[in-house]
Design brief:
The protein is α+β, with helices and mostly antiparallel strands. Helix content is about 25%, strand content about 35%. The strands form three sheets. Strands 1, 2, 3, 4, 7, 10, 11, 12, 13 and 14 form a ten-stranded mixed beta sheet that branches. A two-stranded antiparallel sheet has the order 5-6. A two-stranded antiparallel sheet has the order 8-9. The mean pLDDT is about 90.
């Protein structure tokens, strides 16, 4: 790995994360692309999820906390009638319940209950630490421990398709919100359980997915084009946050 120099690339790169890779996998690939070690990301996406991942290159890693604090937007689909241990399609099905004859209005009524500020209990299958241990490591050992609820805000929760047992949606949320937990809880409130079977992040703050490049596109870019894709830190973050 090359040593840091004044000519090292610096900025925020918008990446369209593919399914099946962790956010750390993307960081590792970007380290090879840019040939520097100082690369991070602003906001984890689960392996099942796709979409916008902010990659921080060089000194841009210093503003990760600010970028992670921004609101997010996602499109997703919940499959009703099946509960998984991870609350998404990567987990094991732990309960199945027949889906009642729900109407679109029934589901919309429950979706409305998620709007605004609320407490959310982080899922066991998450990277959140309790007493220094990551929850997902405990979950893999078959352990379940009490988790402190935390305040999140849902600013938007719109249905985009109704085709039981699946319901698709757009959701806007504050930092720290688990969309798979929202999907799981929606299933609970509808009386049949459910899990998140699709998720795509479409926005982080002012950054939009349509301006992102795929991993394959980035890895095939000429170095000069790749550098031109980097958003300068002072454009990505207000001056007072620098």
């Amino acid at each position: 790995m090359s040593q840091s120099t004044n000519d090292d690339p610096v900025g925020v790169l918008l990446v369209d994360k593919p399914q099946g890779m962790t956010s750390h996998d993307i960081v590792a690939r970007m380290r090879r692309v840019f040939r520097i070690k100082k690369i991070g990301h602003a906001g984890t996406l689960d392996p099942m999820a796709t979409g916008l991942l902010l990659i921080l290159v060089g000194k841009a890693t210093k503003v990760s906390q600010y970028l992670m604090s921004m609101d997010k937007e996602y499109t997703g689909t919940v499959k009703l009638g099946e509960v998984t241990d991870s609350q998404d399609a990567d987990g094991e099905v732990v309960a199945t319940t027949p889906v009642p004859e729900l109407t679109k209005a029934d589901v919309l009524k429950q979706m409305e209950t998620f709007m605004g500020d609320q407490y959310q209990i982080p899922p066991m299958y998450s990277a959140k630490k309790v007493n220094g241990q990551k929850l997902y490591k405990l979950a893999r050992q078959g352990k379940t421990i009490e988790r402190e609820p935390r305040v999140i805000r849902v600013s938007r929760f719109d249905m985009t398709n109704f085709d039981l047992p699946k319901v698709s949606f757009v959701v806007g949320s504050s930092k720290g919100a688990y969309i798979r937990t929202i999907a799981h809880d929606l299933g609970d409130r509808l009386g049949c359980g459910g899990h998140l079977c699709e998720l795509r992040r479409t926005a982080v703050g002012q950054f939009r997915l349509e301006n992102a490049d795929t991993l394959e596109e980035i890895e095939n870019m000429a170095p000069s084009i790749l550098r031109s894709k980097l958003i300068p830190v002072n454009q990505a973050v207000p001056t007072h946050a620098l």
